[in-house]
Amino acid sequence: MPMLDVKDFGKRFTIHHLEKTMQAVEDINFSIEPGNFIGIIGKSGSGKSTVLKSIYRSYLPDTGILYYHSERFGYIDLATATERQVLYLRKYEIGYVSQFLNVMPRRTARELVQHALLEMGVSEGIARLEAEKALHHFELDRKLWDTFPNTFSGGEKLRLNIAMATVKKPRLLLLDEPTASLDEQSKEKVRDIIKKLKANGTTLVGIFHDIAFMDGLCDKVFNIKQKQLHAKQIGGATHES
Question: What's the pLDDT at 181?
Fold first, then answer.
């Protein structure tokens, strides 16, 4: 049974002041088995982020079905799930990492990562220990751990964002350009975490403009323009699946 099965997905956006509706994506179909990693490729503006945000239910799909195999709810259509179900899934099962940090104000970096675990019911002592491990792994300067992240650089915010999402070890992790402003050393830290998450059974869907980063990580690649899923091969070559 697939962890995620996207069928005939489509999304439109309405520009009200222009009285114009634009089709962002349509006829998107792919599925992913538990523990696998699909990379979505395509030009900027082709709708890659729209697909991820709809799976996370930041957007409501206009057409199609987004089946997700939930540990709590069984096979559930994310497009029609209730708000209560979506909140539960975001807290316990589905993680999302983007280039941008959107966090609660007046919480330090350490508190934000701890909170991600505390809301799952992890004890305070373990949450603190795991938060410190995550911040150390992503090489966030210890001086910043008890600082509000509004003062952080773009790279520091991104590393914090990744730490908050991955520390929960979600069943499904959505990655929207998570290495966009990272240096090569920080990218390797992200690779390490992705490999560990995959080894522990996490299913991943990600967008990366850095194709070299995806090599050796992705099991399959979905070309959003061609609307085809390809099996990833060693050295970056692909063939149609």
Answer: 75
Q: Who contacts 28 (Cβ-Cβ below 8 Å, separation ≥6)? A: 6, 8, 9, 10, 47, 51, 64, 224, 227
Query: Contact, 115 vs 190, CB < 8 A?
Result: no
Helix axes 154-166, 124-137, angle to 10 degrees: 140
Q: Are 204 and 198 in contact (CB under 8 A)?
A: yes
How far does Cα 48 stand from its chain's mean position?
Answer: 12
Number of domains present in the structure of the chain: 1
For residue 72, give its domain range: 4-240
What pLDDT is stored for residue 241 in this prediction?
40
CATH number for 161: 3.40.50.300
Using CA atoms, how far apart are residues 224 and 43, in angstroms rounded to an integer? 9
DSSP state of 219: S
| Average pLDDT score over residue span 38-47 | 91
Is the pTM higher than 0.70? yes
Contact 168, 90 (CB under 8 A): no
Q: Has residue 234 got a pLDDT over 60?
A: no
pLDDT at position 239 is: 41
pLDDT at 238: 46
Q: Round to whole Å and give the CA distance between 74 and 78.
A: 12
Beta strands in 37-186 (DSSP E): 37-41, 63-70, 74-77, 94-97, 172-176
